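Priority: medium. Attachment 1 of 2:
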């Protein structure tokens, strides 16, 4: 097996629900509930699910932007979860994020040059000249020009702003980029350009990606493997081709059926997943998907399915236990 860059074991993030005049703990929201996976060097792992499924929380936990309630995160065999602040700073050079809304994540009062230089200043990297040189290089890498460096974020289109967000993530020469819905806010015509750019950059710099999206269609071509999350749990994970050709979990099957089909004659085949997404504060017992599952059996209502490994295709569903 190729070298692992990241290993996640039993990761949990629970938020307390408090109430009453004494702020008593009434319960908890299990935003991320005991998930485990690994990422190999140089690959792209897609993580997909509806909003509120815990995928963005997972991304933030991996960078320790928020603290885990439990579990281990190993980056290059080093445990991130209990690192000191100075150790963590070093790791954060190696792990960078690209966010969904480039406008919200770029300081509107700073020029592109200042925005791109900032991570280098934070990490004490390079002289002023070296930093300026790197700004120019990275602007070119993402398809912009050095004259753009004196402009402000509002002077760019959405697609260009996301290119700036990507350039900023590249500044510290990271090993892992966590891209949290990087194309969701963009027009469909621009999405493909940004995805192609990310793919080219990955090859050029030997990067590893975790690519978070709510749409299985978006991650299909960029991902080597794809994991599907539902209400804080990872319910299926497999090689990309295998997952799209042979989805095993009824939720993944429903998500794939919900991917829009452009041909009007095929419209009848597209069905949205029935029922509302239950509240993460009060998830259903047993299999969390049982309230929406067409294959639901009695056991599903009371017993949480254990993840099965079917020749490298992981699935948590009683149909396969
Ligand atoms: Fe459906 Fe049961 Fe499988 Fe859950 S465990 S997805 S309810 S068949």
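Attachment 2 of 2:
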């Amino acid at each position: 097996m190729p070298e692992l860059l990241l290993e996640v074991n039993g990761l949990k993030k629970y938020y307390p629900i408090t109430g009453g005049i004494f702020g008593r703990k009434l319960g908890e929201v299990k935003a991320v509930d005991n998930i485990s996976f690994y990422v190999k060097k140089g690959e792209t792992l897609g993580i997909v699910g509806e909003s509120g499924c815990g995928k963005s929380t997972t991304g933030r936990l991996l960078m320790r932007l928020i603290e885990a309630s439990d579990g281990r995160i190993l980056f290059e065999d080093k445990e991130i979860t209990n690192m000191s602040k100075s150790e963590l700073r070093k790791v954060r050079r190696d792990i960078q994020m690209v966010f969904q809304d480039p406008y919200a994540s770029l300081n509107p009062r700073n020029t592109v040059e200042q925005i791109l230089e900032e991570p280098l200043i934070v990490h004490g990297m390079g002289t002023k000249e070296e930093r300026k040189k790197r700004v120019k290089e990275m602007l070119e890498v993402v398809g912009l020009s050095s004259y753009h460096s004196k402009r402000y974020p509002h002077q760019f289109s959405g697609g260009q702003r996301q290119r700036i967000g990507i350039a900023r993530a590249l500044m510290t020469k990271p090993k892992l980029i966590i891209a949290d819905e990087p194309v969701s806010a963009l027009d469909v015509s621009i999405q493909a350009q940004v995805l192609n750019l990310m793919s080219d950059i990955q090859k050029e710099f030997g990067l590893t990606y975790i690519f978070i999206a709510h749409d299985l269609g978006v991650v299909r071509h960029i991902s080597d493997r794809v994991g599907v999350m539902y209400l804080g749990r990872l319910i299926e994970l497999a090689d990309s081709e295998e997952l799209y050709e042979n989805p095993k979990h009824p939720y993944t099957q429903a998500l794939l059926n919900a991917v829009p089909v452009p041909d009007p004659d095929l419209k009848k085949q597209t069905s949205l997943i029935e029922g509302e997404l239950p509240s993460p504060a009060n998830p259903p017992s047993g299999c969390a998907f049982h309230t929406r599952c067409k294959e639901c059996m009695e056991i599903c209502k009371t017993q949480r399915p254990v993840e099965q490994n079917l020749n490298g295709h992981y699935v948590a569903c009683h149909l396969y236990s």
